[in-house]
Amino acid sequence: MRKISIVILICLLAVGVVTVSGCTDVQNTANQVQQTANDVNNTVNEINNTTNTVQNTANNLQQLTGQ
Length: 67
Hints:
The chain is mostly helical and 67 residues long. The chain has one helix spanning 2-65.
């Protein structure tokens, strides 16, 4: 009976290790998705900044030409 208990305990530990490993993989994937989202957001911010710069330049040109 004691051997069966030990085997069951080892099996439960093995399942626990696999589960923790799986959770770690999911967390790593979630972190990668979050990083990608951050990268996309940074790119959008850069595009917005460039758009603002172009708009400001256009406004300055209009003022210089009296339009």
